[in-house]
Write a structure and sequence with these properties.
By secondary structure, this protein is mainly β. The chain has one domain: Coagulation Factor XIII, Chain A, domain 1. It is built from 1 helix and 12 strands, in the order βββββββββαβββ. Strands 1, 2, 3, 4, 6, 8, 9, 11 and 12 form a 9-stranded mixed β-sheet that branches. Strand 1 and strand 2 form a beta hairpin.
Length: 155
């Protein structure tokens, strides 16, 4: 294992953990599906700082430079899941945002994925929520990325 710039990486670069402790506190683990860069933007695509999100806005977690898909017939088949939980229970429960796309994507298109969350009802100000986004390779059950972000809703 090697430690470099907020990331722990296996010697063969196929497993690791990334953390943005100094900025958003976004945490990511991966194996056999490797992210180049992961970051959070607001609804205007400006990089976010901190863990606060205003009510009635949106944020996105962007995964760039994804590689390691098991390609079949020139296509990658990612599974993208998104979950948001709070004290009141599950708010977002999307098991596979690409379930209606059995044809897959070109490797170039699958190399950048974006999950967007709308921060609104039933979310409440001064409450904390956990957002988890998972990317898996439908052609390789050993390939995954899991990003977790704990955020606070503010008015």
């Amino acid at each position: 294992m090697e430690i470099k710039d907020g990331e722990i990486v296996s010697d063969d670069d196929t497993k690791g953990a990334k953390s943005d402790y100094l900025n958003t506190q976004l945490e990511t683990v991966y194996e056999n599906l490797v992210p180049g860069k992961i970051y959070i933007v607001d609804e205007s695509d400006n990089p976010m700082n901190g863990t606060e999100v205003k009510l009635n806005t949106k944020f996105s977690i962007i995964f760039e430079g994804l590689k390691g898909y098991t390609v079949q017939n020139g296509k990658a088949h990612p599974k993208f899941s998104m979950f948001v939980n709070g004290d009141g229970g599950i708010i977002v429960n999307e098991m596979d945002l690409f379930a209606n796309n059995p044809d897959g994507f070109s490797e170039a298109d699958a190399s950048v994925l974006r999950g967007t969350v709308t921060v609104g009802e039933p979310m409440k100000p001064e409450q904390q929520y956990v957002c988890t986004m998972n990317i898996a390779d439908k052609n390789n059950p050993d390939g995954y990325i899991m990003a977790t972000w704990i955020f606070q809703v503010v008015e």
